[in-house]
Design brief:
The chain is of the alpha+beta class. The chain is 43% helix and 25% strand. Helix 10 runs antiparallel to helix 11 and helix 14 packs antiparallel against helix 15. The protein binds adenosine-5'-diphosphate (ADP).
């Protein structure tokens, strides 16, 4: 058994030295009968002021009206204790958010004699420790907690700045008091959503700001519960995304501008290429007529010049056709399910004469069904196969088409055993009119640019890997879509 001395020392320590807690006793009627220094520290009451008062005096008028003091005492009397987190009134009528427990006190015969209240102010954040407190203050995010009556229980400096107030004028105030009524109502509605859903959810909130008009905050809110799972309020962390949002808006505006100017350019090249066809046809027709007309009378040199004119006109015709196709590739896609096995089979038939003549072999693994514009996809495969045949080495062309499927995309590859492409040329060949071969192989330098445009319009990427002298592999992706999206 502890001696009387030990008990009184323990009592002194508990009651007097525990400055971090307000500890006091009340009798069965709710009259306060003791005091410790913690009471003065949290509630501002001196011993003379405090002892003799009714326990209900430190409750807010709202809680008193709801009968909270009596309910706490009843619960403690019945169950031994009653825990709560609520606002209490200080001596100067300001409010302090307190976490406390009311314990039943019995005499030696186990008869109830009164209660002991142990409380501490939540906003002191003892539990958080200095590390957490430093973090809360140093972070660039606004962090706050509100109780169920919408009063600020905690706010860091950043939050106070966002509200344009001193921290002292924030704690204990409602948002209705600190913000324009419409906006406060909007915040409350989103809080209620979180509380109803029981889960954290980021919401974009626009706080009025005297300087720049408004601050856009991305706020993650969570219901705040005590250790027994009862709802105390809501905690929130808000990240300032004003600059990021402005940047995003500007980026979208620029992209839209680029899209519009691309469209205009595409229409322009279409019109120009289209209108060039007619005069070119006239050049070709009249060159033929002139050749026939002069047939007998022209010498070797004149015949040679005539041939140059015709070659030039043919080349120009080819360029115009390619430009037209390139311009048209910017037009709306007609997306549908496409069986790429059937598409390659079609191409093999279409290109049969060229394949035979070059001795090429076009092999393909089983290929997936994709969601694409079938004509445009055909153009891509046709260009890649034709290039593999045109830029072959000394061996007959051997072309292998494969596909890899992941959750997010299909990745097609087309490998050849051709001359290959030097590292420095692997990007520029995808730009319009860029050719590595001037005369030896006919072409317009549009094919790969067209492929890139088509694949990018589908939301994919195209690139080449190659070992010069051994061959190249052209790879492209198409985004995978769910069956629901495709239908
Ligand atoms: P074109 O074939 O009309 O010149 P492309 O845009 O299709 O135009 O190709 C651009 C250039 O890329 C070609 O001139 C050629 O030099 C190079 N190239 C394309 N495909 C291959 C390939 N499979 N192997 C080697 N070089 C290639």
């Amino acid at each position: 058994m502890p001696s009387d001395y030990q008990l009184s020392e323990l009592h002194r320590l508990l009651i007097e030295e525990l400055e971090d807690f307000a500890v006091f006793l009340i009798d069965r009627e709710g009259r306060i009968i003791s005091w410790n220094p913690g009471v003065e520290r949290f509630f501002g009451f001196t011993e003379e002021d405090f002892v003799g008062r009714n326990f209900a005096d430190i409750f807010t008028p709202e809680d008193r009206a709801k009968g909270a003091p009596a309910r706490e005492m009843e619960k403690a009397a019945k169950e031994g204790r009653s825990d709560d987190v609520r606002w209490h009134l200080c001596q100067d009528q300001t409010r302090v958010f307190v976490e406390g427990v009311l314990l039943r006190v019995q005499n030696q015969n186990r008869e109830p004699v009164g209660f002991a209240k142990i409380a501490r102010a939540v906003r002191q954040m003892h539990a958080a420790g200095s590390m957490l407190a430093t973090l809360l203050e140093r972070t660039g995010d606004a962090i706050y907690a509100i109780d169920r009556e919408d009063r600020f229980v905690f706010a860091n400096e950043r939050m106070a700045r966002l509200l344009n107030r001193d921290l002292d004028n924030v704690i204990g105030q409602t948002r209705e008091h600190l913000l324009p009524p419409d906006f406060a109502a909007q915040l409350r509605a989103s809080d209620e959503d979180v509380i109803r859903g029981g889960r954290s959810r980021p919401v974009e909130e626009r706080f009025p700001d005297s300087g720049s008009g408004e601050r856009v905050m991305l706020t993650a809110k969570s219901p705040w519960k005590d250790t027994e799972g009862r709802l105390i309020g809501l905690v929130a962390i808000a990240q300032d995304i004003t600059e990021r949002t402005a940047y995003q808006t500007e980026r979208e505006r620029l992209l839209e501008e680029i899209r519009r100017s691309n469209e205009a350019l595409s229409t322009f090249s279409h019109v120009v290429a289209h209108d060039l066809r007619a005069p070119l046809r006239a050049v070709k027709v009249y060159t033929d007529l002139l050749e026939r007309h002069l047939r007998a009378g022209v010498d070797e040199t004149a015949r040679e010049y005539m041939a140059f004119v015709k070659d030039g006109a043919d080349h120009m015709e080819q360029l115009i056709e390619s430009l037209l196709r390139y311009a048209e590739s910017g037009e709306e896609l007609s997306l549908q399910r496409v069986d790429t096995n059937a598409l390659i089979e079609n191409l093999r038939n279409m290109l049969a004469p060229i394949i035979q003549e070059s001795g090429a072999r076009v092999l393909s693994d089983p290929l997936p069904e994709v969601y694409a514009d079938p004509l445009r996809l055909l153009q891509v495969f046709q260009n890649l196969i034709m290039n593999a045949i045109n830029y072959c080495g000394s061996e007959p062309p051997r072309i292998q088409i494969s596909a890899a499927v992941s959750d997010t995309e299909y990745r097609f590859s087309l490998s050849d055993n051709g001359i290959g492409i030097a590292p420095g040329d692997r990007e520029r060949i995808f730009s319009p009119l860029q050719r590595l071969h001037a005369k030896d192989v006919p072409g317009s330098g549009i094919g790969l640019a067209l492929c890139r445009k088509i694949i990018e319009r589908h939301g994919g990427r195209i690139w080449v890997e190659s070992t010069p002298g051994q061959g190249s592999t052209f790879l492209f992706t198409l985004p995978a879509r769910t069956a629901a999206e495709a239908d």
